[in-house]
Specification:
The protein contains 4 helices and 4 strands. The chain is α+β, with helices and mostly antiparallel strands.
Length: about 90
């Protein structure tokens, strides 16, 4: 499953619930890569969410900050209003 800057555009009281529902229907062994603006205001504590996924049995779950040079510089992130951009990856 791949998503690039989609979930932050979906009106929701709890975007973590949206992510959980998407991951629920992922086939066992399936990979996911979700790139979005994971700001605390929109998503809450994503580090805690990563730990929750690990406790649920998901493997290799990582939250990779994409604003520190690998994908864009901090300046570009701020200029494009993408502060908080990260990649949530893992395997079900």
């Amino acid at each position: 499953m791949v998503s690039n800057f989609v979930y932050h555009n979906i009106p929701s009281q709890n975007r973590q619930d949206l992510l959980l529902e998407s991951l629920r229907v992922l086939k066992k062994g399936g990979c996911f890569a979700i790139h979005d603006i994971f700001s605390g205001m929109k998503y809450g504590d994503m580090e805690a969410f990563v730990e929750k996924l690990r406790r649920m049995g998901y493997k290799r779950v990582e939250l990779i900050d994409t604003t520190k040079g690998m994908f864009m510089s901090p300046f570009e992130a701020a200029w494009m209003t993408l502060s908080g951009s990260a990649l949530l990856v893992g395997i079900k």
